[in-house]
Amino acid sequence: MKQLRLAIILIVVIISGCITPTQLTGILPPGAKVYQVKPFTIVALDEKEISNLATNYFKYDVYGFYLEKERVMYVPFSDQTNVITGNRLPNMYILGHEVLHLKEIEGNYHK
């Protein structure tokens, strides 16, 4: 069973083309914008736990949040799971929103 799982993982990786191009110039359209993002941390947890944690920082309800000084994003889990590992996945919509808060991308664009 483990060998079958490993074979499936390898096939998925090969088929999906999970490789990083060494040179982006020439492959991207002229209007594309490339963001070089330094490391940050993503913490996925239940919505209720995010609400409890957010009360330490905000006086209003949030779906997720990003602490710029610590470079940590807090996002809720979604109902979806990774098809290979079975692990719960973060809510990608909220994660994408929080990624926009990185100073390398849009920063504190709410203000």
Note down, in words, how this protein is organized:
The model is unreliable at 17-22 (pLDDT under 50). This protein starts with a helix and ends in a 12-residue tail after the last helix. Helices cover 28% and strands 19% of the residues. The protein contains 3 helices and 4 strands. The chain has a domain at 23-99. Strands 1, 2, 3 and 4 form a 4-stranded mixed β-sheet that branches. It is flat. By secondary structure, the chain is an alpha+beta fold.
Give the topology, please.
Layout (H helix, E strand, L loop, with lengths): L1 H15 L24 E5 L1 H8 L10 E3 L4 E10 L6 E3 L1 H8 L12
Parallel strand pairs: 1-3
Antiparallel strand pairs: 2-3, 3-4
Number of strands: 4
Radius of gyration: 18 Å
- Give the count of helical stretches: 3
Could you report the average pLDDT, rounded to the nearest whole number?
82
Which structural category do the helix and sheet elements fall into? alpha+beta
Helix content: 25-40%
The rough form would be described as: flat
String of helices and strands? HEHEEEH
As a percent range, the share of strand residues is: 15-25%
Report the span from N to C terminus: 52 Å
Poorly predicted runs: 17-22
Question: What can be said about the biggest beta sheet?
Answer: 4 strands, mixed
Give a short synopsis of this structure:
The protein has helices at residues 2-16, 47-54, 92-99; strands spanning 41-45, 65-67, 72-81, 88-90. The chain is an alpha+beta fold and 111 residues long.
Spell out the key features of this protein.
single chain; alpha+beta; 4 strands; 28% helix; 19% strand; four-stranded mixed sheet
